[in-house]
Design brief:
The protein is an alpha+beta fold and 207 residues long. Helix content is 29%, strand content 33%. Helix 1 crosses helix 3. This is PRELI domain containing 1b.
């Protein structure tokens, strides 16, 4: 049967910044369990949708009780496939992720929707769904309960990682904003009486 999880978050940043942070969120100090990320496929469709498929490698630390049941040589790396669709016209990012190995122990399928918040246009709404199941006979229910608890914990850290990436992006934008403000104030400074107008500067096309 499996377990189902649903949550909503409101991110206090515009969608285009959240989209940029999504692609740049690794590495970050809150997701040290993510070891690698590789783009397997990327395409822009005739409808101007960006389709991507990435492979993520993560570590998988078993709980203490599981280490007494499952072989000690069991691989701790988890391979996760992530499909995503970006619609720049609708301001939406939809992702679907699922693990490729350890499926008998536990399968986690996640679907996320990042969209512009209708009530707060400068915010982004995140809807998250997850389906967690196990095929271990006699232990499926406790494994699924553990899976839900770990999933919630991981998502808390994932949001911290996304905020970390957002902060970096926004801090990089600040110098440009300050520069624009200084340039604007220079343009609007009054010239001394009888001073000749400042000639327009010709742009350097080969800079």
């Amino acid at each position: 049967m499996g377990r189902y999880f649903y949550s909503e978050d409101h991110i206090k940043s515009p969608w285009h910044q959240v989209l940029a942070a999504f692609w740049q969120r690794y590495p970050n100090p809150y997701s040290t369990h993510v070891l690698t990320e590789d783009v397997l496929y990327r395409e822009v469709t005739p409808a101007n949708l960006l389709l991507s498929r990435r492979l993520l490698t993560k570590t998988n630390r078993l709980p203490g009780w599981a280490e007494h049941i499952f072989p000690t040589h069991m691989a701790r790396a988890v391979y996760v496939l992530e499909d995503s669709i970006v619609d720049p016209e609708a301001n939406t990012l939809v992702t679907k992720t699922w693990n490729l190995n350890h499926n008998t122990l536990m399968t986690v399928v996640e679907r996320c929707m990042f969209e512009q918040d209708g009530s707060q246009p400068t915010w982004t709404k995140l809807k998250r769904e997850a389906w967690i199941s196990s095929s271990v006979y006699g232990l499926a229910r406790p494994i699924q309960e553990f899976g839900v608890a770990r999933y919630k914990s991981n998502q808390t850290e994932a949001m911290k990682g996304l905020d970390y990436a957002l902060t970096k992006i926004q801090s990089e934008d600040l110098p440009h904003l300050h520069g624009d403000q200084e340039e604007s104030s220079e343009k609007h400074k009054p010239r001394p009486p009888n001073a000749p107008p400042t000639p327009a500067k010709k742009p350097n096309q080969f800079a």
